[in-house]
Amino acid sequence: MNMRANYQVNATPQFRVLSEDQIEEIYFSALEVLERVGMRIYSEEGVALLRDAGSRVQGDRVWIPSWLVQEALTTVPSRIVIAGRDRNKRVYLEKDKIYFGTGSDCPSLVDPYTDAVRKYTFDDVYNAARISDALPHIDFHMSLGLTSGVLAQTYDRHQFLAMLKGTSKPLVITAVDREGLADQYQMACEVLGGPEEFARLPLFVVYIEPSSPLNHSVEAVEKLLYSAEKGIPMIYTPCTMCGATAPMTMAGGMVQCLAECLVGVVLSQLRRKGAAVIIGGVGSIMDMSTSILSYGAPEMVLLSAAMTDVAKWLRLPMFSTAGCSDSKVLDQQAAIESAVSVVVAALSGANLIHDVGYLESGLLGSFDMLVMSNEVIGLAKRILSGITVTPETLAVDVIERVGPGGQYLTQEHTRRHFRAETWLPTLMDRQMRRGWEASGRKTMADRVRAKVLDILEHHQPMPIPAEVEARLKAIVAEADARHAS
């Protein structure tokens, strides 16, 4: 047998931003911030937990010792599994497993029938979930829009109901406060048949955000502690703007972001060892000419990939960003920014990659952008599949058989491999000009909109049993009644 020593195989392309030495510098700098600068924790319960565990406290200012962080990192899970209403639709958050999903809570959308920009309604939130449900490369769903026409204190329950009805995929939710999270947890338990099934395979992850720089609100900490108690996986990540709410340098922005994330790790483990935490964040620059948090900036792509390196080094799941743009419409800019961010996020090995479908720097949740980015994700996954090198794929015998001047189209080898070796687009056009003109000269935007309308008019998600839906609506109605006065 022909044997080869020291033969290495790259099953996928290899990519990273930071060396291990750089990661260690960022980590140790974050520990120094926690010890030397401290954080403001606006929850008395959170402050008490940290004080009792050995942190130095002065009012709401808390300085967390390095040993406490390192102890928490020994008990926080490196692997989290969630599943949708369809229990077979699962997301495995572990090193280098990638999953793409929408972002949440955009105030506006482009009406797919009139092109008018308007606020999201309950039906729009439901339709966004249906579109995610129909797209093969969207693995989880966050509410792409912010429900209007309901009480500000209870919008999250209405959104959750719309999401549950619209998709059977795993969910990432937001919550107004601890009470809102508790109501949504109760709704999830109704859907699953009880808290035991939620504990076995959680239906959702809750997104919780500290307030940069170095602040942790009452609402954020209370949601974190409730999640730890109930076994709800939590994302605890800031939204940092380099030059505004974080240092201008990307390394400095990462240090602050990581320090803020680590507060969530420590608090969660103090409440319950083994509580599941996902770190990362939406880190970008403040564009100095417009003052926006740029969702299309190369710095956001770079920061997300670099934070993924850090999260993997810490053995923690990573919440990343891709498939979004600062453009106001689905145009060339949107396509460029979506494609670059999706490919780099996929190569980085981040776990929950969200914000697919964002336009206008996160103000516009676009059905068109979501559908187009689904195509980009399929392309990126083909790049990630790499090149298989075996005697069969090296094809020396086939090359000999065809010989100079031959052709490979009729070879059995071609028939065996063409489906696995080539990615077939569903929206990108590869026709010759004559065929493209004969089929109506449709642009990418035309094809995307047609796909959106086809899903809206034909796709039906897995239904919720009528008696379960009635109980869900009752929970939402009770929340509305509590806050109506």
Counted beta strands: 20
Under CATH at level 1, the class of the domain at 80-384 stands as Alpha Beta
Overall shape: globular
For the record, what is the CATH homologous superfamily label of the domain at 80-384? Trimethylamine methyltransferase-like
Mean pLDDT: 96
Low-confidence sequence ranges? none
Chain oligomer state? single chain
Structural class, by secondary structure, is: alpha/beta
What is the CA-CA span between the terminal residues? 81 Å
Using only C-alpha atoms, the radius of gyration works out to: 24 Å
Helicity level, as a percent range?
40-55%
Here the CATH topology of the domain at 80-384 equals: TIM Barrel
CATH architecture assignment of the domain at 80-384:
Alpha-Beta Barrel
Percent strand equals 5-15%
Question: Major sheet, described briefly?
Answer: 8 strands, parallel
Q: What's the number of helices?
A: 18
The largest sheet has its strands arranged as: 6-18-17-15-13-11-10-9
Describe the protein in words:
By secondary structure, the chain is α/β, with parallel strands linked by helices. Among the domains are: 80-384, TIM Barrel (Alpha-Beta Barrel); 391-421, no CATH class. Helix 5 runs antiparallel to helix 18 (466-484) and helix 6 (178-192) packs antiparallel against helix 18 (466-484). The protein is 47% helix and 14% strand. The chain contains 18 helices and 20 strands. The model has no long low-confidence stretch (mean pLDDT 96).
